[in-house]
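The following block was generated as part of the benchmark described in Methods. Ligand: tryptophanyl-5'AMP.
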Amino acid sequence: MTPRVFSGIQPTGELTLGTYLGALQRFVRDQTTTRSVFCVVDLHAITVPQDPGQLAQRTLDTAALYLACGIDPATSTLFVQSHVPEHSQLAWLLECTVSFGELSRMTQFKEKSDRQQFVSAGLFTYPALMAADILLYDTDRVPVGDDQRQHLELTRDVAERFNHRHGDTFVVPTADISAVGARVMDLQDPTRKMSKSVDSPQGTVLMLDEPAVIVRKFKRAVTDNDGEVRFDPATKPGVSNLLSILAAATDTTPEALEGQYQQYGPLKADTAEAVVARLAPIQARYREWTADPTALRALLVQGAEQAHAVASATLARAQQSLGLG
Ligand code: TYM
């Protein structure tokens, strides 16, 4: 049977090279051989404060980026999470299936709550909503970056527990984390993940950065002093990050690349060039999509209808399993 794929991206801030290499690039590759469903997860975004106008705009922009990367609405379903109410409805059922202790152990919650003055209950129960996203579509495989690994493990545990308690209801999904590009690090602090929510403008390459800006950021990337190009993330995080990025952007492995460079300068220049080559056509298509918000909105309405058809059947099954309705 054709494997079913689901993944989501938050419409918070501008998307980074990490989101592209760890997620988007892989979504596009797989869509012809899978039944893929992709989502702009705006409900996850409101677990921390958002400006309403900005959130609405970023939701549309994120959808445009999916399309610009090559997600084909004729093959894949693309929609906005809040347009399909079953996500919130199933999330509640799963909040009653997951334990307080399990949610307390989520490292993303610990990190994110440390950065908030007001820690919403939604930030705490975030993984239950994420599990709902995935389970609603009978998902087999979830392509994500390494930072989502723990959430995926919890999703599996919750699905298995629900099935055990209430009878077979959900497909138990597996995380699909690539060997290369699943952990793109900050160029200024390569021991920290490149992230749209951390303030490090020089260390973060944005998908919509001008080519000259991308080149400058790579030129200034932090490396080390021993001058040896070797893939060893523990002792050489900066150089290893560059090798990983170059590998992910040219479809090879860091190990295959390390012997080709004697100096950091050419490695930085080639990495920048490879990234620009991947992002420039996406940026051009992005401008086309954002120039026509009416077409974009119409497409998202259609996507929500397709998603709703599947999601409503799964929700009904879960409700029935629980004796609701
Ligand atoms: P988000 O929006 O933070 O990131 C979207 C995707 O990009 C990946 N990613 C990275 N990969 C490699 N290196 C990086 N530096 C990097 N930064 C981001 C993320 O791993 C992710 O795959 N909770 C999710 C969104 C979500 C979701 C879901 C994902 C909600 N429901 C259901 C999958 C399935 C998140 O905040 O991703």
